[in-house]
Amino acid sequence: MLSNHFQNGVETVRHAWSRIPNSEESQFVDDAVGLVRKSDGSSVESLDYEVIENFAYREEQARRGKLYVSYLLVVKWLFALLIGIGTGLAAVFINLSVENFAGWKFSLTFSIIQKSYIAGFLLYALINLVLVFSSVYIVTQFAPAAAGSGIPEIKGYLNGVDIHGILLLRTLIGKIFGSIGSVGGGLALGKEGPLVHTGACIASLLGQGGSTKYHINSRWFQVFRSDRDRRDLVTCGCAAGVAAAFRAPVGGVLFALEEVTSWWRSQLMWRVFFTSAIVAVVVRTAMGWCKNGNCGHFGSGGFIIWDISDGQEDYSFAELLPMAIIGVIGGLLGALFNQLTLYISSWRRNHLHKKGSRVKIIEACLVSLLTSIISFCLPLLRECSPCPESDPTSGIECPRPPGMYGNYVNFFCSSDKEYNDLATIFFNTQDDAIRNLFSAKTIHEYSSQSLLTFLVMFYSLAVLTFGTAVPAGQFVPGIMIGSTYGRLVGMFVVKYYKKLNIEEGTYALLGAASFLGGSMRMTVSLCVIMVEITNNLKLLPLIMLVLLISKAVGDAFNEGLYEEQARLRGIPLLESRPKYEMRNMTAKEACGSGRVISLPRVVKVSDVVSILRSNKHNGFPVIDHTRSGESLVIGLVLRSHLLVILQSKVDFQHSPLLSDPRGGDRSIRHDSHEFAKPVSSKGICIDDIHLSPDDLEMYIDLAPFLNPSPYIVPEDMSLTKVYNLFRQLGLRHLFVVPRPSRVLGLITRKDLMIEDTENVNTLELQSTSVRNRHHNKRPTTRNSDVERPLLNGLLVGSE
Amino acid sequence: MLSNHFQNGVETVRHAWSRIPNSEESQFVDDAVGLVRKSDGSSVESLDYEVIENFAYREEQARRGKLYVSYLLVVKWLFALLIGIGTGLAAVFINLSVENFAGWKFSLTFSIIQKSYIAGFLLYALINLVLVFSSVYIVTQFAPAAAGSGIPEIKGYLNGVDIHGILLLRTLIGKIFGSIGSVGGGLALGKEGPLVHTGACIASLLGQGGSTKYHINSRWFQVFRSDRDRRDLVTCGCAAGVAAAFRAPVGGVLFALEEVTSWWRSQLMWRVFFTSAIVAVVVRTAMGWCKNGNCGHFGSGGFIIWDISDGQEDYSFAELLPMAIIGVIGGLLGALFNQLTLYISSWRRNHLHKKGSRVKIIEACLVSLLTSIISFCLPLLRECSPCPESDPTSGIECPRPPGMYGNYVNFFCSSDKEYNDLATIFFNTQDDAIRNLFSAKTIHEYSSQSLLTFLVMFYSLAVLTFGTAVPAGQFVPGIMIGSTYGRLVGMFVVKYYKKLNIEEGTYALLGAASFLGGSMRMTVSLCVIMVEITNNLKLLPLIMLVLLISKAVGDAFNEGLYEEQARLRGIPLLESRPKYEMRNMTAKEACGSGRVISLPRVVKVSDVVSILRSNKHNGFPVIDHTRSGESLVIGLVLRSHLLVILQSKVDFQHSPLLSDPRGGDRSIRHDSHEFAKPVSSKGICIDDIHLSPDDLEMYIDLAPFLNPSPYIVPEDMSLTKVYNLFRQLGLRHLFVVPRPSRVLGLITRKDLMIEDTENVNTLELQSTSVRNRHHNKRPTTRNSDVERPLLNGLLVGSE
C-alpha cells in the first residue's frame, strides 16, 4: 500500500509543477549574478545535462500535449527570428559606430596634416588613445568577460563547460562598446570574433528572458529551461554573429556546425539557417538605408564584402606552384602566430594581469600609442611613387580624392600626382586596407619593400595586441597579414610568369585564406566564408587547395588558435575523438582510486551537510536495500538539488522511515524552476545554508529527487568506448558498475522500430501479464515514469 | 598460470593478424555476390558496428603506428579525390549522352514535321520507346537494384541497414545506362537522384577495391574494412553525386549532412567538401572542353544551371503574400504527391511487380507511349500565339531558330512569326523547359490555360512514372511542377500588382523550391542548392520563406518522400529522435518476452549448430561462471563469427576445458579478414556448413571471439534514454541487465581530460598497485585489451 501512496504522491508533485509554469520562484533563479559553485576553486563548471532528465525534462514531458508542442515550436522560431534581428542590429550599430569614428578620425587628421604633420600625428594618436582607453576601461571595470574574441569560451559553453559571466548582459554591453573602441582606435584586431560572442549573448539573454539583475526581464520569454534549449539558442546566436560579421549566412551555419558546436541535431540546422538569413536581411536593409547618406561616414566600408568578381577567371597549372607556396607560408606563419600568442598570453596571465586592472589599462594604452606611432611614422619614411597612368574604365583614381576611401593614398608626398603605397595599407582602416590589397587591376601598386615592412610590423603588432584586455577578433588581422604575403607572392608571379591575366589581388585573397587556415584550422566554413565575402564562386577550388595545405602544415606544429587559447584558459574541451592512450585503460582505471561517496535513500540532514562539506563531488549515487538485504543502486542525486532541498527545508521529515506523501502536502512544496540550472547566476553554496540543530536531526527521503537511471558501464570496458558514450550523449556523470551477472534481454534495431499508432496495442499484447498488474493502481499512465518498477520493488521490500 | 598462457595466446593471435594485412583470405570475403543472410527471410540486414570493436578495430589499432596513420590519411584523401573524379566523369558521361540522344531526337522530329506531323510523331514515339525499353531492360534483366532514385536505400545504408545489391558494380552500370535511357526517352523523371546513387556506388566500389565477381579488383585499394570507413566513403559519394547533378559543391555537402547521413563527424566534413569541389572542377573542365563543339548536341543544356541573375532585384512587402501562397500550394501539392506515389508504389509492389520482369517492361513502355502522346499531341491542340515585339537587347529570338534550344518554340503554327507556348514547355527537354519557365524578361509568354494544362498533365505523368522499373529522380519533375504553378501565380501578380520590376521567372523559381520543400522536406541543403543553381544569392530569404511554409504545410499531412518510400520498401530507418511513446516504456519492456539465448564460454559444436538453427538472432551473450559459482556475462558473440568458426573448424578442441593456446598454433589460424563483414557478398548461412558427427562432438572456446564489453542498460531505464544511446552510438546490440548492486566509481569530465603525454605517467602513478601486478606478465602493453581483468579473474577462478 505504501508504494501505491508514494507513487501517487510523486504523480501529484509532478502534476503540481506542471500547473504552475511561471510561478514566483522562477525569478529566484536568475536573481544573483556570480560564479557557479565557487567552492570548486575554479570558475569552470560543467553543464549538467542530467537535470534535463530529472526535473525540467519530466515536467516538460508532463506538460507536453499536442498544443504545448506546437506552442514551443512557434516560440522557438520566434526566438530564432528575434536573435537574428538582434544580432543584425548589433552588428549594424557596431559597424556604423566604428566607421564613423574612424572616418571622422582620418578626415580630421588629413585636414590637419595639410598644415602640420606633428599636430596631425598628435591628434591621430590622441583619438586612438581615447577610443582604446574607453574600450579597455569598459572591459576592465564593467565586463571583464568581454575581453578577447570570446570564441573559445562559447566553444567551451557549447561543449558543456560553463564559464563565469560569458553570457551576461554586462558582457554584451562591454563587448559591443568595447569593440567599437578597440576597432575604431585602430588596434591590430577585428570585430568579427566579438560579434560571434555578441550573438551568443543576445541569444542567451533572450532565452532567459532578459537579465534579472537589471530588472529587465519578462516571464513571457522564460520558456527555455533545459540546457539543451539554451545551448541551441546560443548556437543560433553564434551563426548569427558570423553571418552578421561577414554577411555570409551559409558560412555562419557552417561555422556554427564545424567550429563551435559539439552536439548537432539536424532539426537545429534549419533554425540556425533561418537566423542567419534573418541577419542577412537585416544587414542588407540597413545598408540600403545607409546608401541614402543617413549614416555619416558609413559608406562603402564597414561590412566586409571584398567583392573580387573582377578577379582572374582562370589559371594555368604553373600557377599552382606559387599557390601551394602560399599555403605553406600560411601554415608556417599561422602556426607561429598561435605559438607566439600562446606564450605571450600565458606570460600576461601569469605576470602582468595579476597586478590588477590598472596594469591592463596602461598596457592597452601603450599598445595603442605604439600602433599609432608605427602606422603614422613608418609611411613617413617611405618615398612616394608617381601615380600610374590613369585608366578611366577601372574607376580608380590616383591619388584618391581627399576625404574618400580608396587606393593610392597621398600621404607626405611632394607632388599631387604621387601616392604613398605604405600609407595606402597602413594609414587606413583595416577594411579599406584589405580592399586595397585585394583589388584587381592595380598591378605594381605596392613595392615589395613596403609589403614586407608592413607584414613584419603588422604581424608583430597583431601578436602584441592579442591578449590585451579589449574585445579582439583575429579574422581581420589574419586577413591583413595573409593578403600581404599573398600579394607579395602574386607580385613575383606577375614578374616571372609574364602572363597578362594574373591578378595580384587573387593571390592576396589566397594568402588571406592560407593564414586563417594555418592559424584557426577551420576548413569548410572558412572556405565558404571566403567565397561569400569575395562573391566569387570560381575561386573555390583554389581556396580549398590553399586551405588544405596550410591546415596540414599548421597541424604539424600545434593545435588551432581557439583550442590553444581554450586550453590556456583552462576550459576542458572534450574532443570528438577519444585519445589514443584511452585504448589501454578501463573505465575503472579512469575514475581513479577516489572513494565513491554514496547516500542511502533516507538520509539524515546532518549527514548530507557533512558529506557536501567534505568533498566537491557534484553527483552522488543513492543506494537502497531490499528486504533481503541486497543493495541496489536506485539513482543519482545532484549536489545542486541537495542544496535546494536543504535550503527550502520543506522536505525534512522527523522519522527515518519512508515518507508518506498523503501526510504532508508535498505536492505544492516544489516548483521545478527551483531545480533548474541558473544560467548567469551563482548557485547556492553549502556555506550559504543555515540549518538549526533541530533541522540537522531530521531526515530527507531522496527518492523524488533522483535521476533514477543514469547511464552505466561495466568496470572493465575500454575507456575509448566509455569516452564515446560520454561524449556523444553529452553526459556529466557515468556510473562504473561491476560486470552484470545475467542478461535480461537484448535490444536490437527491431525492438526500437515502434510504429506511432500500433505500438501501444502491440505492447499491451506483448506484456499483458506485467502491465495488467500495474494497471489498476495508476489512474493516469501519462506520468508513469521509469523508476516505477524499481521503486515498487523497493517499497514492497521495506513496507 | 593458465590465465597468463591464455593472455599470451590472445596477444599472439592479434600480433599474427597484424603481420598479414593483405593475405589471401581477404579475397574470400568479396567472392560471392548475393543476399546477406538470406535465412532471415528478408533482404534487409542491419550493419554490424560491433565488428569494429571485435576484430577489425583491434587489428587496426594494433597496426596503427604513426606511419600507418599517416598512410591511412593519405589513402583517405586519395579516395576522396578518386570518388570526385569518378563521379564527375560519370555525370559528364550521363549528361553528354542524354543531351545527344534528346537533341538528336528533337532535331530529327522537327525536320520531319516540316513534311508530316504523323510521321514526326511516329518517329518521336519510337525513339522514346526504344530508349525507355533499353533502360527498363537493363534494369530488370541486369540490375534490379538500379530502379528508382536510390536515395532511400542509400539513406538506409548510412543509417545502418544493409540492402541487397545497392552498391554493386552492376547496379552502377545499370544506373548509368538506365538513366540515359529513361531521361533521354523523355519520361517525367530526372537524373539527379540516380546520380547520387551513382556516386555512392562508385565510392563503395573504390572502397572495396573493385568488384571481385568481375575480377576487377585490386588489393591496393582494400584498406577500408571497417563499416565506419565504408560509410564515410559512401557519404563522400552522395555529396559528390549532388555536386555533380546540380554543380553545387556546398549544396552537396549539406545534402549529405542533412538528408542522408545518420552519423556525422566534423573530420569527415572537410573530406566530403573536398570531394564535392573536385567534382565541380571536373564538370567545369568538361564543360569548357564541350564549349569548343566537341560534344555534339551538348551545348548550353545538360548540367543544371538556370542562371537567373537577371531576375528581379528587390521585392515589395505586398509580394510576400503571393509568395506565401506559393509556399502553401507547394506544401499541399507536395504532400499529395507523396501520398499518391505511396499508394501507387504500394499497389505496384503488391500486384503488378509480383508478376515478373515482363510486366515491368510492358508497363514502362506503356508509360513511355503515353508520355509521347501527351507531350506531342497536346501542343497540337493549342493555338499558336503571335510573337511579341522582339527586343534585341535580351537576346531572345522568337521563334527560336530551328535546331536550337530556347524559348518560343514554333510548333504546328500557321505563321512563321508565331510560337506555341505549350510546346515550349512540353515538347522540349526538361532542362530547357525549366530554363524557359525560369526565364526573365519574357512576361506574357505563357497563357494561364497552357500552364494549367501542363501542370495537371505533367503532375499526373510524374505520379504515374514514379515507381516504374527505371532509374528515376524526383528533382527535375518537382522543379517542373513547381515552376509551372509558380509562374502561374507570378502571372497573376504581374496582372494585379501592376509593377514593372516583377519577373514571372522569379516566381517560377520560388514555386520550384516550394514543391521540392513540400515533397522532400529538405531545408538548408535544398535552399543552398537552389541558390547555387540559380546563381543568385539575393533570393535566399525568399526561398527560405517559401520553404519554411511549404515544409510546415507538408509536415501536417505526411512524412517526406524519401522517408515514405523507405518505409514502403521496409527499410527500418532509426530516426534521430525517439518516439513519443517510448517515454512510458522501459528497456525491459522493449525487448519483449522473448527468451534470451546465451552461450557458455566453452560450448559444444552441436549445441552451437542447434542454437543457430533454432532462431534468427544475430548476437548471443556469453556467460561464464566463477569458481564460487557466480555467473558473469563475459561478452557478446555474433552469429556471423560463429559461422566462420564453424566453417573453418580450426578452433575445435576435444575437451570441454579451456583451451591451452600453447598447444595449438592458434596464432596463425585466423585472419581478421575472415571475420570482416562482406560488403557485397552473401554471408555464410548455417545450412551451408557441413559438419561431420565427429566435429559435432567437439568444443569451442569462445573467449577470443567475443566483443568483451557491449554497452549495457539497466532493465528499468526509460526507453527514450535507451534509444538515444542506441542511435547516437550506432549500436546493433544492447544488453539489458539487472540494476547494479553497487557503484564502483563515477566518471566525470575531469576523468576524461587526459593530457596526451602526461597521462601514461600519471596513470602509472595513480594505480601503481594494480598495474605493477600485471607488468611482468605482459611484454607489450600495447595490445592489452579490455577483457583482461575479467578474463584473468575468470581463469583464475576455473583453474
Automatic annotation (TrEMBL), chains A, B:
Residues 766-789 are annotated as: Disordered. Keywords: CBS domain, Chloride, Chloride channel, Ion channel, Ion transport, Membrane, Repeat, Transmembrane, Transmembrane helix, Transport, Voltage-gated channel. One of its GO terms (cellular component) is chloride channel complex. Pfam families: CBS (PF00571), Voltage_CLC (PF00654). Coiled coil: none annotated. Residues 585-652, 706-763 form the CBS domain. InterPro entries: CBS_dom, CBS_dom_sf, Cl-channel/antiporter, Cl-channel_core, Cl_channel_pln, ClC. The chain crosses the membrane at residues 68-96, 116-139, 233-256, 268-287, 320-341, 451-469. SMART domains: CBS. The keyword tRNA processing does not apply. It is a multi-pass membrane protein. Its main location: membrane. It is found in: Membrane. GO terms for molecular function: voltage-gated chloride channel activity. This is Chloride channel protein.
